[in-house]
């Protein structure tokens, strides 16, 4: 084992250079002009996996390709081994090579796809979310393979290109490759830790529903002096409509929205209080004049264990410089709701849409376009696998790990559970100040290095766990 850790230590500079190569691909899954970049990025990744000694393939899908890379060679090999009495454990590492759109570009201190190193921070779109994080696992496996250290288990990497747009094709892929991907647990580093001194096992994620609402008014933009006053303004109507969806206490004002929400246990509320981040620190980090949230819950609870209704984008009328006196023809909002355990995405989608239709005025026409959806995820932090992961975190970071519930979503983990019957261990390496989905995204090289060590130790711990 020491030889693996020594290998990691010796090769950090090269690992960072390789990660920079990976980061140079503008693999933005949401934007169709990057389709070729997605393929090039997947090819690069598969090639890299081969270089470190994995058996890798690029699997095309109806959308962006999935890279599958294995330590265990040909398909038949595992099948044969499985037939043996003491078959080796098999774990899957999941990650995503797609990234969020880099806009607004003018807020980046250096171009998003030209990685820049400043002391121990590596800046580029996709550093923390998620290229840097799953790359740490690849480097750990490289260390085993290149030092001829036997791995105590079989590993399969599944790195997809559609996580940031809902993972629609990976779910299908899991079903059609169930036998090959069947495993004892899935390991995902695509979440966060409260700060650099607190490695974390995340045992809950929020679910999500996405949709777009458009209010259509006049058949074209109108002169607001000639017609304004006698036709409804779709931008105003949308503002008022959306304004009705939040009450004085910061709660979502949609009947039934909270009906199924699983209450927090006393134990969980106590655990939340142990986390190191204070409200003032968060307020400063985020640059808000004051924090805001649902009354009756702490900031940490609001961020991870309570459902929300968020406007992600709001568009209407003239956006250019100067003024233009029009009544816009339409107004549109991109919305996501974060969901918590026991809320059913289809049901919440229905009650939200029904309510919008009910309160929409007759002066505009409401159009709703449904997007992706996923339920929340919750897994026991007490399982033998989770305990093994905590041991690996403790050794790698030389710090006591914390248990987290987090507010982000990784829709596919539900499918790992349903299709592969495998729990997911969420072992995130991201920091709150990493600017995921924001300009100047970065990854901390200490997290990168500790993450590699964690991964190296993890396979020993997991393989020994029941
Ligand atoms: N890595 C995030 C999810 C995340 C971040 C979980 C921080 C927990 C803590 C992931 O890449 C992501 O951004 N997911 C999307 C999913 C959506 C597009 C379906 C999200 O949460 O918005
Ligand atoms: Mn993301």
Distance between the termini: 21 Å
Helix content: 25-40%
Main sheet characteristics? 6 strands, mixed
Bound molecules: ligand BES, manganese (II) ion
Provide the β-strand percentage band.
15-25%
The coarse silhouette is: globular
Main structural class: alpha+beta
Question: Unreliable segments (pLDDT under 50, ≥5 consecutive)?
Answer: none
The count of β-strands is 18
User: How many separate helices?
Assistant: 15
Mean pLDDT: 96
> What would you report as the Rg, rounded to the nearest angstrom?
24 Å
Would you mind describing this structure in some detail?
The protein is of the alpha+beta class. The chain is 36% helix and 21% strand. The protein has helices spanning 2-10, 12-23, 35-51, 75-83, 127-146, 168-176, 178-181, 234-243, 266-273, 279-286, 299-304, 345-359, 384-397, 412-420, 445-464, and strands spanning 55-59, 66-70, 90-96, 116-118, 121-123, 154-160, 185-188, 200-205, 207-216, 222-223, 308-316, 326-327, 330-339, 365-374, 377-378, 402-405, 423-426, 442-444. A 6-stranded mixed sheet has the order 1-2-6-3-7-17, sandwiched between helices. The protein has a 4-stranded antiparallel sheet with strand order 11-13-9-14, with helices on one face. The protein has a 3-stranded antiparallel sheet with strand order 4-5-18. The longest helix is centred in the first third of the chain and has 20 residues, at 127-146. The model has no long low-confidence stretch (mean pLDDT 96). Manganese (II) ion binds at residues 100, 129, 164, 436-437.
């Amino acid at each position: 084992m020491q030889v693996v850790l020594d290998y990691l230590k010796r090769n950090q500079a090269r690992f960072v250079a390789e990660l920079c190569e990976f980061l140079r691909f503008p693999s933005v899954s949401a934007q169709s002009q990057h389709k070729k970049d997605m393929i090039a990025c997947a090819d690069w990744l598969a090639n890299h996996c081969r270089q470190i000694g994995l058996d890798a393939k690029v699997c095309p899908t109806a959308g962006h390709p999935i890279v599958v890379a294995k330590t265990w060679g040909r398909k038949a090999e595992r099948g044969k081994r499985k037939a043996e009495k003491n078959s080796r454990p098999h774990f899957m590492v999941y990650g995503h090579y797609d990234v969020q759109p880099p806009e607004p570009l003018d807020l980046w201190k250096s171009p998003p796809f030209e990685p820049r190193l400043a002391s121990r921070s590596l800046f580029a779109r996709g550093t923390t979310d998620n290229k840097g994080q799953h790359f740490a696992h690849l480097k750990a496996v490289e260390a085993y393979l290149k030092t001829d250290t036997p791995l105590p288990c079989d590993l399969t990497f599944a790195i997809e290109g559609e996580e940031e747009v809902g993972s629609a094709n990976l779910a299908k892929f899991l079903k059609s490759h169930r036998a090959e991907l069947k495993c004892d647990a899935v390991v995902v580093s695509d979440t966060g830790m409260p700060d650099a001194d607190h490695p974390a096992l995340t045992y809950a994620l929020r679910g999500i529903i996405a949709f777009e609402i458009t209010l259509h008014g006049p058949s074209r933009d109108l002169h607001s002096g000639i017609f304004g006053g006698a036709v409804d303004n779709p931008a105003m109507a949308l503002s008022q409509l959306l304004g009705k969806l939040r009450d004085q206490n910061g709660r979502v004002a949609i009947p039934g929205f909270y009906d199924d929400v699983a209450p927090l246990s006393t134990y969980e509320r106590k655990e939340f209080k142990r986390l190191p981040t204070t409200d003032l620190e968060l307020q400063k980090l985020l640059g808000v004049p004051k924090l805001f949230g649902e009354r009756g819950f702490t900031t940490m609870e609001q961020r991870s264990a309570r459902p929300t209704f968020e406007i992600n984008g709001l568009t209407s009328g003239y956006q250019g410089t100067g003024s233009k006196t029009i009544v816009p023809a339409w107004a549109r909002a991109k919305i996501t709701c974060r969901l918590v355990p026991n809320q059913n995405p289809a049901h919440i989608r229905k009650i939200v849409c029904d309510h919008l239709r009910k309160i929409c005025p007759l002066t505009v026409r409401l159009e709703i376009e449904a997007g992706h959806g996923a339920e929340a995820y919750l897994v026991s932090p007490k399982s033998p696998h989770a305990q093994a992961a905590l041991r690996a975190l403790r050794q790698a970071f030389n710090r006591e790990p914390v248990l987290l519930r987090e507010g982000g979503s990784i829709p596919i983990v539900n499918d790992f559970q349903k299709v592969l019957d495998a729990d997911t261990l969420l072992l995130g390496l991201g920091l709150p100040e990493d600017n995921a989905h924001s300009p100047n995204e970065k990854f901390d090289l200490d997290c990168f290095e500790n993450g590699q060590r964690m991964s190296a130790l993890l396979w020993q711990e997991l393989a020994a766990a029941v």
